[in-house]
Design brief:
Blueprint (H helix, E strand, L loop, with lengths): L3 H18 L27 E3 L6 E7 L4 H19 L4 E7 L4 H10 L4 H14 L9 H10 L4 H7 L2 H17 L7 E4 L2 E3 L5 H14 L6
Parallel strand pairs: 2-3
Antiparallel strand pairs: 1-3, 2-4, 4-5
Helix pairs in contact: 1-7, 2-8, 3-7
Length: 220
């Protein structure tokens, strides 16, 4: 089995790949394939967090990483508007999809994958609130303290953040990145189609409203 240090080296290569093949800015997503169609693999669902009615006509997947300032800003300032207007009214089913471009995202995926949805939501919200003040690089200790603040026991933390679990999470992340090719985070898919750019709540509201009015669920 590969060592944990090899796993970290692979992450570094993943980050480097995105930084040199992107648009000179790895946090800006630009569609590299016209109308790329996205379906979430079953094995990756345990890393995601969803909001709303799964039968809603509009299905949105938001790719993010915990070290992405634009992702944190969107969650704090724009997501509550979309949640109030469309998610809480059963018109949109929203899923946050973590995408490994930094070591913190790997840590959090490993730590939360066995958690219940209720535990995951509590951890997710607290980390989103705190992550903007973290330094670049390894924030494992801050993540551990956040897990403890959410009531996760030391035994569970040690198991979830073990080298063996890192290896498994990293491998599934690499498999996922072979299936879904994006330039970076944030990236948005609506009903399977990639939406270019980083839409604000206002722009996203218009897109959703147009799709609902169209009644076909297609992005125009």
């Amino acid at each position: 089995m590969r060592s944990f240090f090899h796993s970290i080296a692979v992450i570094i290569l993943v980050i480097y790949y995105h930084s040199v093949t992107g648009n000179q800015n790895p946090t800006v997503s630009i569609s590299i394939a016209q109308k790329q169609i996205f379906t979430l693999p079953d094995y990756y669902k345990k890393y995601t967090l969803s909001f709303g009615n799964s039968e809603a006509p509009i299905q949105i997947y938001k790719f993010f990483s915990f070290a992405c300032p634009s992702c944190l800003m969107f969650y704090k300032h724009h997501f509550p508007i979309i949640q109030s207007q469309f998610i809480d009214t059963n018109q949109v089913y929203w899923t946050f999809v973590p995408y490994v471009m930094d070591i913190d995202t790997l840590y959090i995926m490993a730590a939360t994958s066995p958690c219940t949805d209720e535990e995951k939501l509590k951890i997710f919200e607290l980390i989103m609130e705190k992550a903007s003040s973290w330094t670049e690089g390894d924030n494992k200790e801050q993540i551990i303290q956040t897990l403890k603040a959410c009531g996760i026991s030391d035994d569970i933390i040690q198991t979830n953040l073990s080298e063996a679990n890192y290896e498994a999470v990293l491998q599934e992340s690499l498999d996922f990145q072979e299936c879904v090719i994006i330039d970076g985070t944030p990236t948005l898919f609506i009903n399977g189609t990639e939406i270019p750019g980083i839409p604000s709540a206002e722009k996203l509201s218009k897109i959703i409203t147009d799709m609902l009015n169209n009644q076909q669920g297609d992005f125009k």
